[in-house]
Amino acid sequence: MPEGHTVHRLARTFAELFGGQVLSVSSPQGRFAAGAALLDGARLVDAQAGGKHLFLGFVPDGGTGPDGGTGPDGAAGAGEPGRWLRVHLGLYGAWTFAGDGSTAVVHAIGAPRRRVGEDESVGGEPGREIGAAGDGWLPGPPRGAVRVRLAGEHAVADLTGPTACEVLDPAGKRAVEQRLGPDPLRAGGTDDADVAAFVDRVRRSRTSVGVQLMDQAVVAGVGNIYRAEALFRAGLDPLTPGRDVPTEVLRTLFADLVVLLGEGLRTGRIVTTRPEHRGDDRVAGRHRVRQNTDDDPDAVPREQSFYVYHREGLPCRVCGTTVLVSDLAGRTLYRCPSCQV
After folding, report:
1. pLDDT tens digit sequence for 176-205
2. 248 carries an active-site annotation
């Protein structure tokens, strides 16, 4: 499942490729035909991420975008998105992109289990044929079970395998957002109300902090990698009851998540190790986590990117104790039993 920085990168990608354009929206698979009909021919005026949810805001053709006003019932005002496409990729969802060559287009952003971040490359999707049609262009036919296709002036985006894909009105979007905890990428480390909300939600419960970090109602956008790595960096035992974690430790933990996810948003990959703790520990035949900058010689190699995630059985980078793996609430947990006490 993609972590929050990936969804924020998706929102940025949609704004760059399709912002302000009237889009052709269809459901090649057929399962989203009714929803696609509601959005077809509308203008994309906003793209937002909230935790692991992507929100694409549309107005009827002719709308120009948000103007700050709302109707008396809280509905969208003139020019504001009246309909939102909400997408949650889940474990298997992914967006794939292709373009007419006039602009750089990422290949894919999504969550097949083989992928951690985005596998980005310039150009259209391999195997797609893109040809001109009059003054416009034609993308190749959809591949696989495409739930929804968004086609603009210079690019096309296909969605496959999402956990959620639905059209919401503004009230429906707000209802989803209200169920989420603070998003470190929205907070930006400057909104103390978000930090206070996170601390309060963790400390009010006896549930272990390791479980709570994966609860999107506690903090939005954190997945298994950031959970494991942030807890290690905080020196915090994942099994510690939330109410027993000191307030200042939680405030520091949230601030660290702001930094880590912010770097993920900037670079498109997850790197949590500090330079002094990196070392090449390649193990033949070992499972490796793909990152989208694996071919970049200046990027931190994936084998050096994490402290504990997928490093079970290897020595801790800090103390040398063997990294452990176990199950916690149905998800795999990685930790150092010496550093995290």
Report:
1. 999 999 999 986 555 788 999 999 999 999
2. no
Which residues lie below 8 Å from residue 130, measured CB to CB, with a gap of 6+? 98, 99, 100, 101, 124, 137, 138, 139, 140
Q: Is-catalytic flag, 2? A: yes
Out of 9, 28, 43, 52, pick the active-site residue: 52
Q: Name the nearest CA neighbour of 3 among 229, 220, 289.
A: 220
The reply to whether 3 belongs to the active site is yes
Q: Which of 204, 282, 288, 331 is catalytic?
A: 331
According to CATH, the topology of domain 4-63+76-178 is: N-terminal domain of MutM-like DNA repair proteins (3.20.190)
- Topology of the domain covering 186-275+304-335: Helicase, Ruva Protein; domain 3 (1.10.8)
User: What is the predicted pLDDT for the residue at 109?
Assistant: 82
Please identify which of the residues 3, 118, 120, 229 carries the catalytic annotation. Answer: 3
pLDDT reported for residue 302:
83
The domains of the chain are located at: 4-63+76-178, 186-275+304-335
Residue entry with tokens 């939102």: 84
Query: Annotated catalytic, 52?
Result: yes
